[in-house]
Structures are given as structure tokens and as C-alpha cells.
Amino acid sequence: MRQKLPRAIGTLGLVFVLFFSTSGGPYTTETLIHSVGPGLGLLILALVPLVWSVPEALIVGELASMLPEEGGYYRWVDRAFGRFWAFQNGWLTWMYSLVDMAIYPVLFNQYLRYFIPGLDPRVEWLISLAIIWGAAWINVRGSVNVTRVSIIAGCFIMLGFLVLSVASAPQIIHVPWQPFASEDARGLGGLAVGISIALWNYIGWDNPSTVQGEVKDPSRTYPRALAFALPLVTIGYFVPLLTTLGASDWTTWTEGGWPQIAVSASGSAGRWIAIWIALGGLISALALFNALLLGYSRIPFVLADDGLLPKPLAKLDVRGTPRTAIIVSAVFYSVFALVSFGKLIVADVLLYSIALFLEFGALVQLRKTEPLLRGVSGFRWVAQRSQCSLRFR
Amino acid sequence: MIVLAGVVGISFTDGEYGLPAIIGTAVAVASGPVMYRLARDRRTGVV
Question: How confident is the model over A316-329, as pLDDT tens digits?
């Protein structure tokens, strides 16, 4: 039996949950620039949204408006291909979430080292646990609290990078995309890692679809939130990168080095902006974990609701929150935070891509077998707008 | 899919990140049907 959850998430909250399900700000783009060079890094960051994120957002937007149910992509694949393939989609998502969620506590510790250098690995793991269980506590208090935290965190991070960009603009001394490629780039392998980092920075538009049963007017809200979030994420990468690349020496850029970039690119205010950016790094890691836990925890919840996992995982508390599913998810992520998954980051992208391919297949199948299910088709919308403008001319 | 095929293709050329990714992905994909069977059997009371 499918349970009804309270619908309380609005458009603004969903925009910021999407922001943290995909991006969380330009953190990690410095690794991309370091790996492949400024010009190639910027080109990859410009091409990936065109060939990947826009089509993905159109697929997800249409499916989300067709079937606005709790469980999102699991329910879409279930309706199109049946329970076996839906389970595979949920399973693949859970598998890559174990790799994905282990990264954010590491990212938090990376920026914490800016304030407290030389942390003991055991202390770092305890801090990772605090991040995981802090996010779990916010999630247990309900999805609206997750959206509130996402909005506040998103504004703090974006404002920090806006200040950095404004302070760096007068310091620009060279073209930001020169040189085009790094001399140290390791051929095709280096390019693969570069593309994977860029893809990782632009994937996840379907993640919050699993909480669609908690969104107000979901058929319209989800596509609308996607339309705001995608440009927000893209601009959020390009503005700081273009200004700071022009105002600093990119060869000094290192992984987790945004505070140092701020010091070298933004003149006299650099020291204070660096503190803001480092604090933003801490907040971003927590908010990423928080928003993703919201989406991922609904997978065991809906699987249990369908009888494929133990029933207690499908229990709701008095607030209408699947508390057991959240806590069990946090336990798994706590265990996997012990393991270093750095070398599996490409697997993260591959598993996500396979799961997304199932969703694309679901869209094609549902269009064919259930033509009465009408979603907001981006392609149709663009076509209609083009026809209107042609007629107007 | 073209992007995915491209990433998979060039991932093979990178020994440090490519091979662990391919193995990790293969294990995750292969374990899916096994886990489904376990979950379904648990529901029907076979396990």
C-alpha cells in the first residue's frame, strides 16, 4: 500500500535542494582546471550542460510531471518496465550513493584543514560521523527543514563566490582560458578523469524526484525548479572561474584550494574572502550530504513500501517522515565513510549513467504505451515556442 | 549514451581510475538481479 506524505516543499526549496543534489557551488572545479588546464576545463564545463544536463533535465522534467509520486525514478521505471527493472534502478542508485556520500565528509575535512591543519585521521572520521548524523538529524525533522537549510546554505555560498568574483574582476591580467590545455594532462586517461569530474558536477537532476510525494503541485513545481536550478548551477561555476583564472596563476591551483585562490586573486580583501570561501566549503559539504540524504533515503522507503525490504523501513513518524529509512541510510553511509573511494569516482558517474539510461527508456516506453499520460515536454514546449515566434514574424 | 560510451571507452585507457571504476560498476550491476531475487524471495516467504 502506497503511503501519503505531507506535501510541504515549494519551488524555492526544491531549487536549492536541486542545487545541492547536483553542484553545491564551484568546489571541485579547481581539480578539473588543475587536471586538464584552464581552456579545456572551461570548454568541458560549457559542453557538458549542453550535451548532458539539458537533455537530462528535459527527460526528468517530463517524467516528474507525468508521474509525480514518492519514489520518483523508481516509480517511473516500475510503471514502464515492471518491478525487476525498477529494483535495478533503485539498486544502482543505492550503490553509487555509497560512493557519492563518502566523498562529502572528506570534502568537509579538506576545508576544515584550512582552519585546523594537521588533524588526526581518527578525529577526521569522528568529524565525518558528526556531519553524517547532523544531516540525519535535520532530515528526521522533516523535508521542509532540509529545504530551509539548503536555501540558507546556498545563499551563503553563492554570495561568497559573488564577492570573490567582484573582488577578482579588477585584478584580471590575462585571458582566463589561456593556456588551453595542461602540459601535464595524461592524454586520454586525463581527459576521461576531467570529463568525469565535470559530469559529476552536473549530474543528479533526478535525485530529489524521490520526494515528489512531499512537493506542493509537483507536476508543475519540479520542471519549474529544474528551469531555475540548471542556469543557477552553470553560472555558479563560470562566473568565479572566469574571474579568478584571469586574476591568478592556475598552475598553483590544487584540490580543495579555493581559499588560496581567493587570496591570490582578490587583492587586499583576499584574506577575509578566503575565510568566507573556506566556511562555504564546510557548509557546502554538509548541505550536499543533507540534500542527497533526503533523496536517497526515500529509495529504501519505497522499496519497503513495495515489500522488497523489511516493513519497518516504510514506517512514518508523527511528522510524516520516514525516520527509520533515514537512520538506516545514515548507518550505511557512516560505515562506508571509513573507506577511501577516491578511485571509484568514475564508477559513480558510470552507475549514475546506467540508472539514467533506464529512466530515458522509461520515458520512451511510457510515451508509446500510455499516450494519455502527458508530462511537460521540454522538446514540445521549445517546438511550440519556435512555431509561435515564426508565425509572429 | 554517446557521452556514456565515450567515458567508458576512454576510462579503459586510464589505469589508475579507469580499471577500478569498470570493476566497481560491473560488480554493482551484476549484484542487482541477485539482490532482487533475494528481496522477492524474502517477500514471498521462500527465505
Answer: 999 889 999 999 99
Cβ-contact A233, A202 below 8 angstroms: yes
Closest CA to A38 of A177, A191, A175, A172: A177
Distance CA A363, CA A314 (A): 27
SS3 A119: coil
> 3-state DSSP call for residue A215?
strand
Interface of chain B against chain A, CB under 8 Å?
Answer: 1, 3-4, 6-8, 10-11, 13-18, 20-22, 24-25, 28-29, 31-33, 35-36, 39-40, 42-43
Query: What is the rounded distance in angstroms from the CA atom of residue A318 to the CA atom of residue A47?
Result: 46
Rounded mean pLDDT of chain B? 75
Q: Which three cell numbers stand for residue A308?
A: 522488497
Q: pLDDT of A21-76, one tens digit each?
A: 999 999 989 989 988 899 999 999 999 999 889 999 999 999 999 999 999 999 99
pTM value is 0.90
* Closest alpha carbon to A278 in A200, A164, A198, A201: A164
